[in-house]
Amino acid sequence: MLTTLWNDFSLGIYPVALVLQPEVHPAQETMAYVKMRLLYISFFVLGALCLYFSMNNFSLFKDELVVFKKENGKFLQLPDVDCRQHPLFLAVLVTSSHAQMLARLAIRDTWGGEKVVRGKRIKTFFLLGRSPNQDIEKAVAKEGQQHRDIIQKDFVDVYFNLTLKTMMGIEWIHHFCPQAAFVMKTDSDMFVNVYYLTELLLKKNRTTRFFTGFLKLNEFPIRSKYNKWFVSKYEYPWDKYPPFCSGTGYVFSGDVASQVYNVSESVPFIKLEDVFMGLCLAKLKIRLQELHSKQTFFPNGLSFSTCRFKKIVACHFIKPQEMVSYWQALENSVGEECPAE
Ligand SMILES: *[C@@H]1O[C@H](CO)[C@@H](O)[C@H](O)[C@H]1NC(C)=O
Ligand SMILES: *[C@@H]1O[C@H](CO)[C@@H](O)[C@H](O)[C@H]1NC(C)=O
Ligand SMILES: *[C@@H]1O[C@H](CO)[C@@H](O)[C@H](O)[C@H]1NC(C)=O
């Protein structure tokens, strides 16, 4: 699924001219002396070349950039939805792993599944890779047949394949559901208030080249080796990340999926899916926008209260049991007044 691209590297001008004209030697110079001088010159040239390459960050061997290869691998599972007949207002793509079955159940029972909000159709799908364990694989195939909401492809399902997982979702939208007005990408440990999100998207009234979430405009690669988010200079040579939205939850207009899919192959591959998305958006010159003047995306979590959660879009670090109890509390509080802020 990944290919290695050797960038055309131009070595630029050599610091030392390689054309060394043999000098006119006086008759008394012996051949041995000439050979010694040539040897010294070769050492000097070699030394200068070494210095030149060591001073250049992009040396011969560091200059390979890995790029994402689209259109690779077949889908193992496709959900049952006809986007052409019944276009979605919002398609929610949830990155999930085989072990998170309880989280998927909780999401289906709460904010996920299929909903109609203000007359708009919303449907949630789960993105999965492949497990090497046959029993687990069978269980997920069965779950998919039952719920018809799993999108699965044949890549190893590990955390650092999240970019592949996200791009699988983008590819699915591009091929099977380009009619979706909006797409959200989020995770299995997120609470999403689809009602408030729909309300804000309708109010915003943006239909193309729209991208929103928790904006990260000044992020730098972490270069300390023992950090979970360590990224080497080899993986990402630049000192700053492009603007991106936290991968915990971002929302974009449907057209962005096809555009991102289109440029994805020409963007250097990075395992951090939200940064990869940021690189694609930078290439497309799509600017990130706030959805609302107040904060609505909470990638660092937020303690629950019904009034608080009525006015948020997404909150991180939610366990399956919490998802169920928060959702019930919200449903039970419909019509109740909240104090004005
Ligand atoms: C991601 O999936 C690909 C394709 O299955 C695999 O070759 C690669 O090793 C996986 N990446 C990681 C970090 O395991
Ligand atoms: C949304 O924008 C379109 C034009 O982009 C405009 O015609 C329409 O009236 C707007 N709707 C609302 C509710 O603001
Ligand atoms: C994909 O890229 C090509 C070439 O850059 C462009 O002509 C085409 O319109 C793009 N398609 C989409 C859907 O953005």
From TrEMBL:
Membrane-spanning residues = 38-55
The pathway is: Protein modification; protein glycosylation
Pfam families in UniProt: Galactosyl_T (PF01762)
Tell me yes or no: is Membrane among this UniProt entry's keywords: yes
Reply yes or no: does the keyword ATP-binding apply.
no
Localization (cell): Golgi apparatus membrane
Matching InterPro entries: Glyco_trans_31
EC number(s) recorded for this UniProt protein: 2.4.1.-
Q: Which GO terms describe its biological process?
A: lipid metabolic process; protein O-linked glycosylation
One GO cellular-component annotation of the UniProt record comes to: Golgi membrane
Q: Which reaction does it catalyse?
A: a globoside Gb4Cer (d18:1(4E)) + UDP-alpha-D-galactose = a globoside GalGb4Cer (d18:1(4E)) + UDP + H(+)
In the bilayer, the protein is annotated as: Single-pass type II membrane protein
Question: What GO terms are given for molecular function?
Answer: N-acetyl-beta-D-glucosaminide beta-(1,3)-galactosyltransferase activity
Which keywords fit this entry according to its UniProt record? Glycoprotein, Glycosyltransferase, Golgi apparatus, Lipid metabolism, Membrane, Signal-anchor, Transferase, Transmembrane, Transmembrane helix
PANTHER family from the UniProt entry: BETA-1,3-GALACTOSYLTRANSFERASE 5 (PTHR11214:SF265), BETA-1,3-N-ACETYLGLUCOSAMINYLTRANSFERASE (PTHR11214)
Give the UniProt family note.
Answer: Belongs to the glycosyltransferase 31 family.
Protein name per its UniProtKB record: Hexosyltransferase
According to its UniProt entry, this protein's organism is Hipposideros armiger (Great Himalayan leaf-nosed bat)
Please spell out the taxonomic lineage of the organism that makes this protein. Answer: Eukaryota, Metazoa, Chordata, Craniata, Vertebrata
Gene name, please? B3GALT5
